[in-house]
Amino acid sequence: MFVKGALLGAAAVVGGIHGSVACTGISLKAADGSYIQGRTIEWSRGPLKSEYVIIPRGEQLRSYTPTGANGLQFKARYGVVGLAVVEREFIAEGINEAGLSAGLFFFPRYGSYVPYDATMAATTLADLQVVQWILTQFSSIDQLKKAVDSVRIVGLERSAVVHWRVGEPSGRQIVMEIVGGQVNFYDNTVGVLTNAPSFPWQLANLNNYVNLRAGDATDQTLGEVTLQPLGGSSGMLGLPGDFTPPSRFVRAAFFRNTAPQRADGWSTVQECFHLLNNFDVPIAIENPDEKTLPSATQWTTAIDLTTRKVYYKTAYNNSIRCIELATIDFGQVRYQSHPLDREQQQPVEMVEVQ
């Protein structure tokens, strides 16, 4: 039986019952064709239980429902590496051995699922396990689109609603949102995702910033007064700097689409981390009462879909770590999960002066 406390804990983290979350996702493509998807995940109410999860091929899995571990049963067709929150079943971001990547993002008030029906538990899939289901079952976006109507996606807690992004190694990416129980798919050519409102609204909102551009603004004459930029990068004057989802979407879109294209996957992963550093949420912005947590942004990840490598860093340790799927025998490895940090401490390299 699913532990009620764990359910509420997961819902609080993803749904922000006691505070908001501010996940920001971007994607970049290297000159050699390597495709990278990166994102942050936030939680400001204390240390977030976060683990990396290894799912072998052939693993028997089952979805939770609001009443217990009695939902959809499915068998893993593909091996998976994921980063999970609260419980190892709740993968927030991950990739499978076919190169398909998926992640969930909080989507409050605008998303709504079908109501839970206990008589249909056998086809019921918890929203927090949709990523687990996608990555273990499919190798392409088209396969997901054909299969999604075969399951009933429900929430484990009423206030916790999410939407998802799914990407292929080719660079194709879609956003999946459920509104009024209806599943909607959107091609994501702008390459970013945050939270609410809906993805089409976020795209329309970009039109409010049509004046923004990289570089410097030109001098302007106002009567007999000449107006000049006060400093560099003035072409981005008016870029919103707050941490609301619409503002982060705009910032991410312009940062991502003005970023230089790097030569290969690893340099693009580094570019991804540099861009996402701009979305680290200071802890006091989210929770002024929190005194020990170093950052509301608890971890950041960049996944190379081309080489099947998962990179991540955390609020406690900014050193980049990597899990390479090619080194894992998904036919033999056991189903397992481990904390992202063995110890929550930032290593420091001492410089010896000669």
Please specify the SSE layout and strand pairing.
Blueprint: H1 4-15, E1 25-29, E2 35-42, E3 50-55, E4 60-62, E5 73-75, E6 80-85, E7 91-96, E8 101-106, E9 124-126, H2 130-137, H3 141-147, E10 152-154, E11 162-167, E12 173-179, E13 182-187, E14 192-193, H4 199-205, E15 220-222, E16 225-227, H5 245-258, H6 265-277, H7 283-286, E17 297-304, E18 309-314, E19 321-324, E20 336-339
Parallel strand pairs: 9-10
Antiparallel strand pairs: 1-2, 1-14, 2-17, 3-6, 3-20, 4-5, 6-7, 7-8, 8-11, 11-12, 12-13, 15-16, 17-18, 18-19
Number of strand segments: 20
CATH architecture descriptor: 4-Layer Sandwich
Structural class: alpha+beta
Estimate percent helicity.
Answer: 10-25%
What is the CATH fold-level name? Penicillin V Acylase, Chain A
Approximate strand percentage: 25-35%
CATH C-level = Alpha Beta
- Principal-axes shape call: globular
Largest sheet: 8 strands, antiparallel
Count of runs of 4 or more consecutive helical residues = 7
Walk me through what this model shows.
There is one protein chain. The protein is α+β, with helices and mostly antiparallel strands and 354 residues long. The protein has one domain: Penicillin V Acylase, Chain A (4-Layer Sandwich), CATH 3.60.60.10. It is 18% helix and 28% strand. The protein has 7 helices and 20 strands. The protein has helices at residues 4-15, 130-137, 141-147, 199-205, 245-258, 265-277, 283-286, and strands spanning 25-29, 35-42, 50-55, 60-62, 73-75, 80-85, 91-96, 101-106, 124-126, 152-154, 162-167, 173-179, 182-187, 192-193, 220-222, 225-227, 297-304, 309-314, 321-324, 336-339. Strands 13-12-11-8-7-6-3-20 form an 8-stranded antiparallel sheet. Strands 14-1-2-17-18-19 form a 6-stranded antiparallel sheet. A two-stranded antiparallel ribbon has the order 4-5. The longest helix has 14 residues, at 245-258. The chain is globular and about 75 Å long. The termini are far apart.
